[in-house]
């Protein structure tokens, strides 16, 4: 009897120990380092056209030796890189994660503000005061850092502030982005390490300045490119100085749209991987990098200039350097790399128009003026429209309440009126969008996904295919208006075998896939499902 009791106790103890071990994340099958690469403007069509000119150990290696996911699409309306990256990193949409675009209209100030603006955080090396506080859900970076507190390390290096912060999430050790006015790395005090010592070292020792003042000329003979240069130079083929001003009156330079920006990101990323010894122990680390294939003064998203070809070919060399460093220091078998792009139309409205395809640019200024006059004629001479931004119309609710106007009636009146404008596809009231729960493939479903109660207007419009919204400075407000916006997506390294994944997935499936491969919880607002790879 005593013997049986001892066996029972021993069995129970072993069961408890087994359950504890099972509940702890395994570190034996996980990648030691995850490298995420976001390329602003990346298109599969561009890669296909340049395929024979890419080197074997760069982008081509990632595609040929990894998983090429061929049907990945964004299920949100394009409104800037911040919302695109947040969707990937959270596995969710703006409806849940709060990031509906790069900017938002504030009813309090009646002005447009950056989505990362935060007066409570000090800038480091910059006057910008920014943070991830409006990112309402956790990211894959956050979940990794929470899974292995004080063990895992995560960093983000980007060209732009919004991209850096959405990649870094809430818990990265440090993020850095390029200041194209002061020509240096900068960051925010929001992150625990502030500006990494390696970014500061590049600022101080002149490395940053060396890249920022490097002339950009063709990598190869100009007659070997498919297309002519946008800005021809008789001696060089084309010539750009990254320190040149964007315009005569702009303090900003063209640095962020030259290969020098990509070189800076690669240099700092590699420095951090090496000096912080990422991937050198059993606890997974993450390095998130943002590059670009956008060129100065480009008017089309197509591969129609020598500069566009050249920036791709130079980026290919930067990625090759990153892979070589990982091979020698960590090993690709212990590293997982994923690469994706943002929402970018294949053709610009200008190119479509030149080819007799219906298209155009929508600027809300004229339509809002006509709408205001229309509402005054119906409801009286008052300022009924408080503001507009990114397809959202904001009403003067205080005045509507004061004049005892039925706001729902006014919303529908506006929605009906907006359909009269050229380029507008549909118009919805806020309640129609936020409360929609129907067909997942409808336009209203994408609108709902793309809105958040904290930043949504009172009426939301959508544009016809081929049309693009621009602000008062003719800057795009979102760079794609296709019904379904696809992005290249590649996974490489670790246990990923060469394969083509043709099953349709969404960008919200990327974070759950990483969670599964890392054996950590999914982000807390994730609505995606892990991508299934062949063994």
Would you give an account of this structure?
34% of the residues lie in helices and 18% in strands. Helix 4 (81-90) packs parallel to helix 7 and helix 10 packs parallel to helix 11 (306-329). The chain is α/β, with parallel strands linked by helices and 535 residues long. It folds into 2 domains: 34-343 and 487-518, Alkaline Phosphatase, subunit A, CATH 3.40.720.10; 360-469, Gyrase A, domain 2 (2-Layer Sandwich), CATH 3.30.1360.
User: How many strands appear in the DSSP assignment?
Assistant: 23
CATH architecture of the largest domain: 3-Layer(aba) Sandwich
Instruction: Output mean pLDDT.
Output: 92
SS content category: alpha/beta
Helix content: 25-40%
Q: What is the name of the CATH topology of the largest domain?
A: Alkaline Phosphatase, subunit A
Shape: globular
What is the CATH homologous superfamily assignment of the largest domain?
A: Alkaline Phosphatase, subunit A
Radius of gyration from the alpha-carbon trace, in angstroms: 25 Å
| Strand line-up across the major sheet | 6-9-8-7-12-1-13-21-2-22
Strand content range: 15-25%
CATH class placement of the largest domain:
Alpha Beta
Spans with pLDDT under 50 lasting ≥5 residues?
1-28
- Put simply, the count of helices is 18
Q: What is the number of domains? A: 2
- Distance between the first and last residues' Cα: 50 Å
The major sheet is characterized as: 10 strands, mixed
């Amino acid at each position: 009897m005593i013997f049986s009791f001892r066996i029972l106790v021993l069995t129970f103890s072993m069961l408890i120990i087994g359950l504890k071990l099972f509940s702890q994340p395994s570190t034996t099958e996980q990648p030691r380092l995850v490298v995420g690469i976001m390329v602003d403007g990346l298109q599969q069509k561009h890669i296909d056209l340049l395929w024979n000119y890419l080197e074997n150990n760069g982008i081509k290696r990632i595609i040929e030796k990894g998983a090429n996911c061929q049907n990945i699409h964004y299920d949100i309306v394009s409104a800037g890189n911040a919302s695109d990256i947040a969707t990937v990193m959270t596995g969710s949409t703006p409806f849940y994660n709060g990031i509906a675009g790069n900017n938002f209209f504030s009813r309090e100030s009646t002005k447009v503000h950056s989505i990362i603006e935060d007066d409570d955080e000090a800038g480091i090396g910059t006057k910008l005061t920014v943070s991830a506080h409006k990112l309402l859900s956790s990211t894959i970076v956050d979940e990794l850092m929470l899974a292995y507190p004080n063990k895992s390390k995560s960093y983000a290096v980007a060209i732009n502030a919004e991209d850096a912060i959405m990649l870094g999430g809430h818990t990265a050790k440090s993020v850095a982005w390029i200041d194209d006015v002061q020509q240096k790395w900068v960051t925010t005090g929001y992150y625990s390490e502030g500006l990494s010592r390696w970014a500061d070292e590049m600022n101080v020792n002149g490395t940053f300045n060396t890249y920022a003042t490097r002339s950009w000329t063709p990598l190869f003979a100009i007659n070997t490119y498919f297309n002519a240069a946008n800005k021809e130079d008789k001696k060089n083929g084309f010539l750009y100085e990254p320190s040149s001003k964007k315009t005569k009156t702009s303090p900003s330079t063209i640095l962020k749209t030259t290969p020098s920006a990509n070189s800076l990101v690669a240099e700092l990323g590699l420095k951090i991987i090496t000096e912080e010894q990422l991937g050198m122990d059993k606890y997974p680390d993450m390095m998130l990098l943002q590059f670009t294939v956008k060129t100065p003064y480009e008017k089309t998203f197509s591969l129609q200039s020598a500069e566009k070809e050249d920036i791709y070919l130079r980026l290919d060399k930067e990625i090759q350097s990153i892979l070589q460093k990982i091979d020698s220091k960590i090993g690709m078998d212990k590293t997982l790399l994923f690469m994706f792009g943002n929402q970018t139309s294949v053709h610009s409205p200008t190119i479509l128009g030149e080819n007799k395809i219906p298209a155009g640019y929508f600027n809300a200024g004229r339509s809002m003026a006509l709408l205001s006059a229309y509402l005054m004629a119906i409801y009286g001479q008052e300022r009924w429209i408080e503001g507009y931004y990114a397809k959202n119309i904001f009403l003067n609710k205080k005045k509507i309440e004061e004049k005892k106007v039925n706001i729902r009636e006014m919303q529908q009146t506006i929605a009906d009126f907006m359909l009269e404008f050229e380029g507008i596809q549909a118009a919805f009231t806020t309640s129609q969008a936020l409360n929609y729960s129907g067909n997942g493939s409808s336009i209203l479903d994408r609108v709902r996904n793309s809105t958040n109660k904290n930043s949504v207007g009172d009426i939301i419009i959508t544009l016809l295919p081929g049309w693009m919204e621009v602000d008062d400075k003719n800057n795009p407000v979102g760079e794609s208006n296709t019904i379904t916006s696809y992005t290249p997506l590649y996974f490489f390294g670790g246990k990923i075998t060469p394969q083509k994944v043709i099953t349709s997935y969404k960008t919200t499936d990327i974070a759950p896939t990483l969670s599964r491969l890392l054996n950590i919880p999914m982000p807390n607002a994730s609505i995606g499902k892990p991508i299934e790879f062949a063994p």
